[in-house]
Write a sequence for this structure.
């Protein structure tokens, strides 16, 4: 995964959030390299604990990215 600088990614994510998307922070563990995704939508953390090796990464210093999803209408709203 390509990582970007904190300020650039926050700006891009904020644009998506304002457009109604759900944004999930992603980062790579600086110790084992495992790709990680934070479980909280529209929240960004400066530090992250790896689910694989348990070590902490300084996300702000190492860079990050995000995954964005746009929800579909509820199933009941699709049936007329």
């Amino acid at each position: 995964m390509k990582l970007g600088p904190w300020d650039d990614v926050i700006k891009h994510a904020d644009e998506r959030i304002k457009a109604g998307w759900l944004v999930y922070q992603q980062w790579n563990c600086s110790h084992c390299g495992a790709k990680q995704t934070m479980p909280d939508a529209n929240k960004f953390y400066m530090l992250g604990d790896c689910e694989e090796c348990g070590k902490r990464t300084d996300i702000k210093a190492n860079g990050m990215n995000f995954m964005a999803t746009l929800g579909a209408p509820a199933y009941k709203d699709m049936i007329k």
The chain has one domain: 6-71. Residues 6-71 form one domain. The beta strands are 22-28, 35-37, 47-49, 56-58, 65-69.
